């Protein structure tokens, strides 16, 4: 495939063939990841590749019982990591910090950039992936299972393997609704309705055509896609709870140190 076909052909794959990913292919994917941009070339991330079936079974619960966790031959977890650099600083008698929120953000951005490089390389090689938001939402559980030391936090992760399904590509908001030139141009009500018009129609259609999703929508009395997002999928209560989980874990992992005002 040409590179543009890889990008525009992306789909989330949740069903996988019972087929291993060779170490050779995996190494090519990881090599692509390591070439990603990195703040200050510090490469403040670590990549954890999980093949062990017993460990994947334990991660299944932490990943909110998503079937691809155990069905895919490989799980890949990308972590913000200043543990390695802090050890190097100590050995060179340099000031040891990078234990604050800004450092976590640098590591999180580095890890995310690497994850997308790996994803593109995997898809070019004929594999499929599915990003899992549970990586950050349950970072404390996943961090414990992956034996993460202080100053390491799981940020993004996905299942990886050969696709056993061929889902249609999902819609995207129109470019005119996403791109701003020179400065941010806030949206009028009319522009918002126009930007989300196709999403409203296609998203609602998908829910109504999938028996499980239709039953949930009708049971909750939901009338539109906006209500699905905020009442069924991403409630305020869940986001507040996950926010606290992340903040607590950042504190426990030594990323919330700062000088008093």
From the structure above, extract its key features:
261 residues, NADH Oxidase, alpha+beta, 51% helix, 11% strand, 2 domains, single chain, 4-stranded antiparallel β-sheet
Structural class by helix and strand composition: alpha+beta
β-strand percent reads 5-15%
Could you report the average pLDDT, rounded to the nearest whole number?
A: 96
Strand order, main sheet: write it out.
1-2-4-3
Oligomeric state of the chains in view: single chain
**β-strand number:** 4
**What is the count of helical runs?**
13
The H/E string reads HHEHHEHHEHHEHHHHH
Q: How widely separated are the two ends? A: 55 Å
CATH architecture of the largest domain: 3-Layer(aba) Sandwich
CATH topology of the largest domain: NADH Oxidase
Q: Can you tell me the CATH superfamily of the largest domain?
A: NADH Oxidase
Q: Largest sheet, described in full? A: 4 strands, antiparallel
* The CATH top-level class label of the largest domain: Alpha Beta
Any idea how many domains?
2
Low-confidence stretches: none
Rg, rounded, reads 20 Å
């Amino acid at each position: 495939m040409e590179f543009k076909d890889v990008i525009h052909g992306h789909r989330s794959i949740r069903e996988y063939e019972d087929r291993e990913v060779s170490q050779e292919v995996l190494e090519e994917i990881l090599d692509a990841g390591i070439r990603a941009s990195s703040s200050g070339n510090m490469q403040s991330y670590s990549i954890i590749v999980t093949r062990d079936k017993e460990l994947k079974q334990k991660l299944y619960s932490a990943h909110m019982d998503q079937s691809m966790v155990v069905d895919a031959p490989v799980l890949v977890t990308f972590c913000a990591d200043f543990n390695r650099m802090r050890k190097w600083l100590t050995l060179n008698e340099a000031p040891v910090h990078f234990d604050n929120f800004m450092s976590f953000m640098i590591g999180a951005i580095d890890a995310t950039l690497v994850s997308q490089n790996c994803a593109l390389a995997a898809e070019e090689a004929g594999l499929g992936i599915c990003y899992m938001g549970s990586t950050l939402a349950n970072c404390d559980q996943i961090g414990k299972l992956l034996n993460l030391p202080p100053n390491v936090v799981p940020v993004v992760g996905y299942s990886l393997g050969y696709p056993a399904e061929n889902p249609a590509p999902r819609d995207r908001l129109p470019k005119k609704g996403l791109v701003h030139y020179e400065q941010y141009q806030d949206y009028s009500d009319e522009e918002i309705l126009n930007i989300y018009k196709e999403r409203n129609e296609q998203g609602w259609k998908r829910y109504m055509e999938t028996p499980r999703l239709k039953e949930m929508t009708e049971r909750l009395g939901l009338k539109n896609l906006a209500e699905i997002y905020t009442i069924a999928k991403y409630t305020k209560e869940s986001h507040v709870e996950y926010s606290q989980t992340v903040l607590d874990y950042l504190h426990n992992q030594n990323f919330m140190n700062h000088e008093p005002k």
